[in-house]
Recover the amino acids of this structure.
């Protein structure tokens, strides 16, 4: 009887104890998959940026030329005492490993060094010329994406027709033609002969640049309400952007054509056609969207290459951007400038690829993070 009377009183206690044990066994909620993916990509990006610093530093310092001779000139470089003082001042007398850690420590403080030729901070100089390259690169990539994707889609839909062969021929010309030759011919024809575009530079000499906000003249002039300056800046931007975009247009045209042809043969496209959906819906909602995923990768890489490979275009059109700055640093063996430009371009590539990875999930549900 005693056991029978005490059992009901022990049951609530046992139940409460079981609930407490179960509560302890419950794991804390996991991070959202997208947030976890972003954190992982940020960690990988940091490691890649560190790798860029190593590669840039090593390749720059392993050039078989003495930068001190380039700084001093022939007469001063013949004096061993002056050479030794200069090497000590620049830290070039230290072991390579010590030089790297000194360079890395300065980077963590936002110091890219000082130009050996102009004696100006590299970071400040890059801040002045980088917006010009960004403006040119954005203009070129917009033209490339618009024309490249549309031409590639049209070529794939008209496979083996006259239109297809014509587009493929034009894309091959765009990929094969030397950029410096196209830039020179385009400048001669459209400026000197036809007078349909402004001259070299980002603005006409008599026009004052807009107040600096972003460094992009087209954007800053719009923010300042200076429509005449905007029109002039846009006119100067059109021709170099088109010249720079020709190679990327040819690349995107051929790549998007191949991607669209692969998507057309898939079962879900056949099912969409069997449902009797309008042709426009099938093309843009099913075919074009499915083909965008690999094309986006090429667009991201192309944007980075436009920034790093615009030296000849910037030279022909007197576009004072990152390409010209890197060219001047390379020809004078200005090591801080070379390393600074290499680091900036590497970071741009990493950031663009990070953004491309995030865009994948919005374009194609099949690659969304689960």
């Amino acid at each position: 009887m005693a056991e029978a009377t005490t059992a009901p009183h022990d049951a609530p206690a046992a139940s409460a104890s079981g609930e407490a044990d179960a509560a302890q066994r419950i794991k804390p909620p996991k991070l959202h998959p997208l947030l976890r993916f972003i954190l992982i990509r940020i960690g990988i990006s940091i490691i890649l940026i560190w790798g860029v610093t190593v590669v840039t530093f090593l390749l720059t310092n392993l050039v078989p030329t003495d930068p001190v001779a380039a700084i001093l000139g022939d007469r001063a470089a013949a004096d061993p005492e002056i050479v030794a003082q200069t090497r000590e001042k620049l830290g070039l007398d230290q072991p390579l490993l010590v030089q790297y850690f000194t360079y890395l420590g300065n980077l963590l403080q936002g110091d890219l060094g000082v130009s050996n030729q102009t004696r100006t901070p590299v970071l400040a100089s890059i801040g002045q010329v980088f917006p010009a390259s960004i403006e040119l690169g954005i203009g070129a990539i917009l033209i490339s994406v618009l024309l490249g994707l549309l031409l590639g889609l049209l070529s794939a839909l008209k496979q083996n027709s006259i239109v297809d062969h014509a587009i493929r021929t034009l894309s091959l010309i765009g990929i094969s033609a030397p950029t410096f030759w196209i830039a020179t011919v385009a400048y001669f024809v459209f400026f000197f002969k036809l007078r349909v575009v402004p001259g070299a530079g980002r603005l006409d000499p008599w026009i004052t640049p807009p107040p600096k906000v972003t460094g992009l003249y087209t954007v800053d002039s719009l923010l300042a309400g200076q429509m005449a300056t905007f029109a002039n800046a846009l006119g100067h931007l059109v021709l170099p952007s088109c010249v720079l975009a020709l190679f990327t247009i040819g690349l995107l045209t051929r790549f998007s054509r191949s991607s669209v042809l692969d998507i057309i043969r898939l079962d879900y496209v056949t099912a969409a056609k069997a449902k009797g959906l309008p042709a426009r819906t099938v093309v843009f909602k099913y075919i074009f969207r499915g083909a965008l995923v690999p094309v986006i990768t090429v667009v991201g890489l192309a944007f980075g290459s436009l920034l790093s490979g615009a030296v000849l275009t910037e030279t022909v059109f007197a576009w004072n951007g990152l390409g010209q700055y890197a060219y001047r640093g390379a020809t004078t063996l200005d090591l801080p400038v070379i390393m600074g430009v290499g680091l900036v371009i590497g970071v741009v590539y990493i950031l663009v690829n990070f953004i491309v990875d995030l865009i994948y999930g919005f374009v194609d549900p099949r690659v969304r993070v689960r």
